[in-house]
């Protein structure tokens, strides 16, 4: 009996031991990350950098290695947001008790959700080299512009050259009538459907339907009016103009998908324009890879015309602006902040850093001193537009890009599918801003 | 010796075997669930926001969210369509591959294979079929209703989802039905045949009543799958066109993470849990009663 008791006791003990071990491990996992390692002046400073651009994960990690080679005292950990992940990598790391030193945000998030994260970067040297630094409502620079992007009507140069009989100039299309005329010319040159626009919710919503904010040089002017309820969109010429043009772009006469404009046509639309079966779609420079273009073919952007006044700025400019900015976390230690600033300067001034951003990452740099050009013809078109001064603010930065694909976007789709009238759509916009005052 | 055996079976021993499972079940299911209920009582925009106690506000918002109820109604239609069709097709296939035709083993494999492809991947494959292949077919053979991509029309998108679900899950249900079919005693079928029952009468009066246990399982599984559908919804239609195929799971995810309304999304998830628990509970309870013994 005694021996048996011993065995049972042993079993009990081992069971308890197992439980205790399991609990200890899980507790250790929770506690370990929150305890700060003692800072030692000789030990390297570790900074955590988040990267929201999943497509350049490998290049970014390589850049961190290159940076560490010349700055052996700094250890850079890059955490990349998985493409399509709904929970931001910054939120995840913060929730697990880590302090992200240098966070990549989209400008809207940096100014709203994360408005209290960043430190003032107004006195940093790199401000002299860019016009796209992100300022908060107090006018302080809080965001380092990492990537610049732009959107407009993407066109296939070869098809348009043939249609107009010569070299097509995108800025020659500065009225709605000229656009319509161009579409007819393309049809006459043998292209059955000049437009292949996929009209996905995020595209017709976030991108196309925010363009009207640019009718004032500061898009916030229009936003303030919308929020105060003093803007009647049905009477707003620019807003109506964009939907007149959208009617044209999605009509049965011109759009490849005009008979049933909604559907999952992203790939089909881009390949059609890339191969030259169609000529025009609406998207940004990021669309280039989806075009599956034949090497050497040229593509560019033309503005979206909203009326028949050739002098209207909206008819002559494409929307360009920073789409990812870096913010330095005020919760990071002074040493970590200094290391993060060093990394940002490295991106702007160091040859390897410049090479990483533009040549390796294929990102359009926001900095004038960066001599490199991307390979992407659409990116080159953006750079040219910047050089020409033919840009207006990237209007998507002024809307909540997070919820538009499920709030405004579907309603614009309903408008395209003729399930909703222009007046109803205007009301959706107005109601949205009445309930989203931030 | 008897006493010793008894003392071996005391709680310590059972804890040794059940303990780890219980702990991991608690860590991965029970605790998150209880914590999840607690979260609904707080106002949070994202999962990482500081919690502010707000009572039942999230539930009030959830109940007032008309989109939630319309997506739930759509999901119920989806549930009815798929539960009926998946089981019908699954049973039909099982009946076919147990009827003694020559290549029945390779057919079993073939019908089961779609189940091995993940829902997300399946969605993208079928997206290609609905957007490119079928319209190309329609164009080539002049079939008017096939010419346009399916996913641009609310009704056709819905049926596209149903179709792919049937294609994916009926093979799995077939396996369960096969197990049920081959365990029906042969003598019963023979007796019925001798009594003069034709093939249809045998199916209705002998086979089907004995298959109720299988149906309990398959209907439960297809009910649950249909209520919780997300991956296929996401990859095939993304809820489009204009949110017309946004099923309730997708609405909850969008509410919580895309529209940054975590508390309300979580409350809607709890409501959904209760609905699914009640529906499947009633189903299992009532169909258990229909079981007969041979």
Write up this protein:
The complex is a heterodimer of chains A (438) and B (294). Chain A has 438 residues and is an alpha+beta fold. Chain A is built from 16 helices and 9 strands. Chain B has one domain (59-289): MetI-like (MetI-like fold, Orthogonal Bundle). Chain B has 13 helices and 2 strands, in the order ααββααααααααααα. Chain B is an all-alpha fold and 294 residues long.
Overall pLDDT confidence of chain A: 85
The percent range for strand residues of chain B is under 5%
Oligomer: heterodimer
Number of domains of chain B: 1
CATH homologous superfamily caption of the largest domain in chain A: Periplasmic binding protein-like II
Task: Give the termini distance of chain B in whole angstroms.
Answer: 42 Å
Proper CATH architecture of chain B: Orthogonal Bundle
Number of strands of chain B: 2
CATH topology term of the largest domain in chain A: D-Maltodextrin-Binding Protein, domain 2
Q: Could you outline the blueprint of secondary structure elements for this entry?
A:
The complex is a heterodimer of chains A (438) and B (294).
Chain A: H1 2-34, E1 45-51, H2 57-70, E2 74-80, H3 89-95, E3 102-105, H4 107-111, E4 134-135, E5 141-156, H5 157-164, H6 176-188, H7 201-207, H8 219-228, H9 237-249, H10 266-275, E6 280-284, H11 288-291, E7 299-302, E8 318-328, H12 334-349, H13 351-360, H14 377-388, E9 391-392, H15 408-416, H16 422-435
Parallel strand pairs in A: 1-2, 8-9
Antiparallel strand pairs in A: 3-8, 4-5, 5-6, 5-7, 5-8
Helix pairs in contact in A: 2-13, 5-6, 7-15, 8-16, 12-13, 15-16
Chain B: H1 2-8, H2 11-39, E1 42-43, E2 52-53, H3 57-64, H4 66-97, H5 104-112, H6 119-141, H7 154-182, H8 186-194, H9 199-210, H10 212-227, H11 231-236, H12 248-258, H13 262-289
Antiparallel strand pairs in B: 1-2
